Structure prediction request, 171 residues.
Amino acid sequence: MFKVLLVDDEPLMRVALQSMLNWETYGYSVCGTAANGEDALHLIEKHNPELVITDLKMPRMDGISLIREIQSRECSCKILVISNYSDFELVREALKLGAVDYLLKLDMDEASLAHQLEQVRLLLEKDRSDQKIELERMQLIDSQRKKQILRDFFSSDASDPSSFLQDNFDC
Prediction:
């Protein structure tokens, strides 16, 4: 399951988002809701969600500032923006900042949200796969390095192990 955080200043919108569909069916669990970007940042630190769905216009910290702050903290979550028709310039800026896509609030229904969640889930699964491959690659390199050190040690003049250690490590 991927964790999702819902951020919107309108309480009815947060409730609608949370109850619009069965999140688990799409591979997600809602880890929290927030009314503004500041509250969202606290929940991001606490829950480390893989997806943040955020409104753009909110008090205290808007969606654009939230996206910038998420990036500055090097959070690896994906961001999906929800907006009104009049927010086109903000949507464009959000996409430039790295949001994966957007949904218009007035057009949003279960099918459109489910479609976006599926698209984001595919991105998240690819990221997980890439991270797993990188970890395995690093483990293989580490293992090969250790084997080479042992080969070097046993093929060297092992009469003075401390000099071997000093030559090959920062001791």
Summary: The chain has six helices and five strands. The chain has a mean pLDDT of 88. The helical segments are 11-19, 37-47, 63-72, 88-96, 110-155, 161-168. The beta strands are 2-7, 28-34, 51-55, 78-83, 101-104.
